[in-house]
């Protein structure tokens, strides 16, 4: 099983509630860039699990323009303050159903980092930039292996974007 863990794209700073924060235009561009790059890694996801927050569902809308999925589900276990160990158990249950599957998770900080830590106990929770994607793989032994973590700032110079150039935050 391969689990791809993605943080949502850059979101608007504040609206009436955190759950309703939409992606910014830059956030949409970052997500599209990462989705194009990710499409070279995996052609289709068996399962996509998305936080019910608006910016996470908008992130999936952008990714789905480049990569399809068999099953897409809103997953309340993926909100920012949810329990990462419970979320990891949910993910591992999908692996029990289909051991060769590719799963995409779209969530938030700190959940995405804590989820990597829960799936790969030898790894401390990494910090994800917006639109960052990590890959965790599982083989015969059942232990998670932290394969990589990439963000739009890493791949932008190595991949010809089909989206407008991203603005820097400096």
UniProtKB/TrEMBL annotation:
The record lists the membrane-crossing segments as none
Q: Could you tell me which InterPro entries the record lists for this protein?
A: His_Pase_superF_clade-1, His_PPase_superfam, Mito_Ser/Thr_phosphatase, SixA
Enumerate the Pfam families for this protein.
His_Phos_1
List, alphabetically, the Gene3D superfamilies matched: Phosphoglycerate mutase-like
Q: Which UniProt keywords apply?
A: Hydrolase
| UniProt-listed NCBIfam families | sixA
- This one is known as Phosphohistidine phosphatase SixA
């Amino acid at each position: 099983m391969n689990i791809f863990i993605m943080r949502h794209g850059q979101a608007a700073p504040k609206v009436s509630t955190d759950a309703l924060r939409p992606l910014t235009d830059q956030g949409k561009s970052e997500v599209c860039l990462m989705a194009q790059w990710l499409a070279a890694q995996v052609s289709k996801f068996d399962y996509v699990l998305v936080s019910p927050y608006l910016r996470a569902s908008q992130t999936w809308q952008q990714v789905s323009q480049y990569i399809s999925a068999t099953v897409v589900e809103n997953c309340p276990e993926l909100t920012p303050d949810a329990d990462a160990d419970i979320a990891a158990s949910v993910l591992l249950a999908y692996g029990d159903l289909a051991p060769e599957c590719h799963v995409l998770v779209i969530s938030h900080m700190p959940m995405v980092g804590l989820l990597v830590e829960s799936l790969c106990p030898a790894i401390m929770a990494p910090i994800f930039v917006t639109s960052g994607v990590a890959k965790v793989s599982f083989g015969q032994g059942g232990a998670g292996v932290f394969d990589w973590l990439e963000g739009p700032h890493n791949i932008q110079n190595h991949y010809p974007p089909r989206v407008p150039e991203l603005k820097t935050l400096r």
